[in-house]
Input
Amino acid sequence: MNFKLKKPNLKNIKPDRIVKFFDAKNKTELFDFIKKFLNSEYIYWDEFRFKEPLPEGVSREELWLAIKFFRESQNLKSIITNTNGKNFTWTKLDYFEEFFHELDMSTGGELFVERAGVDKVNKQKLITRGIMEEAIASSQLEGAATSRQAAKQMLREGRKPKNESEQMIVNSYISMKAIEEKYKNADLSMDLILEFHNLITKDTLDSTGAKPRLRKKGESIYVSDKMTGDIYHEGPDMNFVNKELLKLIKFANNESEENKFIHPIIKAIMIHFWIGYLHPFTDGNGRIARQLFYWYLIKQGYWAFVYLPISKVIKLSPKQYIMAYIYSEQDDNNMTYFVDYNVKKIKLALRDFKNYVKKQSIGNTKMKRMSETKYNLNIRQVQLLQYLHGDPDERTNLTIHMNINQVAKMTASNDLKNLVKKGFLIPKKQGRNVYYYGAKKIKSLF
Output
């Protein structure tokens, strides 16, 4: 059963009723109320119908019609169309400009990392953290049934995945690394899209038990609720999809016939939406949509986005993520719902990252000073204790310590044995390996 948004009955409201708002005694109150839903609260009728209090002398339906009228007057046409040839539209909300300026100053020049005094080694660790968190959360959004803790441990130890959920996470991680290291300057092409898709779906199966691939002509695909069976979206026919993918590629390479400037953040979100709408593959559409979002931003110079795991924030509100698509498709192709949702998630991810860096910087400075002066620890040992601090499930072993620090076996062994001797590590033999866990004494350094 196709999911349909509930819509208000606006048929009996005469258009001149909205014109009369301009002559109403309380017109200031009316327009202040309406303005709120043109910018700060860009919500649909299903939420608006519960908003209180309303201005006097006007019905809720009349207010909604006025909001729709003003929204449509502000809409900008995008290059993206639905199967009926109708363009999706979007609006520049008031808060975009100020936030995009902050992003332009931060995520290109990376000032929020530099100002925190993060050194080169820790910058790379923050990048690795961001890529890991994004790979895990993006896969979990698509159904990977693995805990964040277990997934991080698997990636850090380089362990082979045990099941398809872990394979999804490893694939997403490898793909994100490839974007940062290999593809950040590449132009988008159909071959590159297929290459990205192969990376994220390696050794996994789609719902039919086959290797995920590009859909064939006449082959249907649905986005549905597994609990209720409601169908949220049906992927368009592949004749339409193939034509649109060519348009998307030109758009992503800034070769589109439409020469109007669109901020890179908005363009990246549009690419994300476009892939989600087309659903060109039998599986992996959500992951590749978010991967292309990152690819585009990194290519445009916003390379510090690798620090920001947006999917981790989206995962906290997966239903809202789905609804942002639904509102955009079913409320007259108004893509502002999806743009607004994603911009707000980027804001949250940036805020969370800044708080994390600040907290780590304060704690690490104190810890580094005490570690070096009181216990005579080297930088490799200090960084290991920083990593183990506060999480009893984190661990390392000889091979991991060697690989992370690019040191010889003897050097790595001496590092670990010294930390055991000083009471900072607890060795535990598990099978053929000896793993080292953080001891309670580490907390005394912070």
